[in-house]
Amino acid sequence: xxxxxxxxxxxxxxxxxxxxxxxxxxxxxxxxxxxxxxxxxxxxxxxxxxxxxxxxxxxxxxxxxxxxxxxxxxxxxxxxxxxxxxxxxxxxxxxxxxxxxxxxxxxxxxxxxxxxxxxxxxxxxxxxxxxxxxxxxxxxxxxxxxxxxxxxxxxxxxxxxxxxxxxxxxxxxxxxxxxxxxxxxxxxxxxxxxxxxxxxxxxxxxxxxxxxxxxxxxxxxxxxxxxxxxxxxxxxxxxxxxxxxxxxxxxxxxxxxxxxxxxxxxxxxxxxxxxxxxxxxxxxxxxxxxxxxxxxxxxxxxxxxxxxxxxxxxxxxxxxxxxxxxxxxxxxxxxxxxxxxxxxxxxxxxxxxxxxxxxxxxxxxxxxxxxxxxxxxxxxxxxxxxxxxxxxxxxxxxxxxxxxxxxxxxxxxxxxxxxxxxxxxxxxxxx
Length: 431
Hints:
By secondary structure, this protein is mainly alpha-helical. Helix content is 74%, strand content 0%. It has helices at residues 12-40, 47-54, 56-74, 83-106, 108-136, 142-163, 186-204, 216-219, 223-232, 237-255, 259-265, 276-299, 301-325, 331-362, 369-398, 402-418. 48% of the residues are buried.
């Protein structure tokens, strides 16, 4: 008879505190993605060049997250192995983020230099923050814990897009300018949130002993060697889930950047309402992250992800068809039905994301949690770099609706690969 599954009840406070790190990222990213292009366009006429600068965070993430995640596996300090990266890098991130609007008012070179500094320290902190959760929460509870953390990220995205973004309309006095300036206030306020989160993490999250089993040679295993081991393992579960997540992030990151443009050019919505389609995904993310973790804890992570991939493909095909069959509908009904489909997309998408990370962590050991975290972000960010040009090419050749077929095809291929993943379930817990 199977042993009764444990509850996350005793870990909710720890998970919530760790989730503050995700909350700050969720708070900063929407503001960054929305307003930094606006700042850059004050100086640069080429949208292509602006787009290239906006991929800076993804390019740095490909290299920095795996490196610092792996480095944190091997670091032993009195405050833990992850915490030094958090207490050093997050405050610098907060300062750089808060100064972005002021740099934008000063000079293009100041803005670009600050963006580089921001992304350097943010990506250096991101891997260790993520790896902190599997350090603190038992393996069989990580889907539920990841659901709590993803919920906080989703709430932060809503707060950033609906709450803090409104502060950009509030004029503030800026040294060197006679008139109060708009498009400033949200960034320093978000920076304050980041500092507060960092303080709470440091005060209340106490890492367990970072010395593992005392095997120094194992704990200092090089990153490239660890990657090679994963690719040459007899059981290819880790490799297949990494390739699967590359494909589904290729789909997601290829669709989401063009949802606003699709809403405007194909559905006739206003510019102010164009972001609501992505907002539907964010709301679904916040509402269903915890339930999806609980569902997977009860029914299995692999089954949950594979089922969600099938349903995502169905939804994307419906969105593709919707663009054609809704041409004769009332504009309000057409837009509302599209939002409903995007909300459904968000439900199944969060079920995939919430449970894939814990599956990968389950295949790691205490000494290699950071390596696996870095690999997750390597494939994630590589997809983020490649996806927009691919779907942009699809739009140029076949129109906006083609991005949904592209996304459906990538999700379908991810499903085929996920059928070969045999490990990563809660009952596979090994420490």
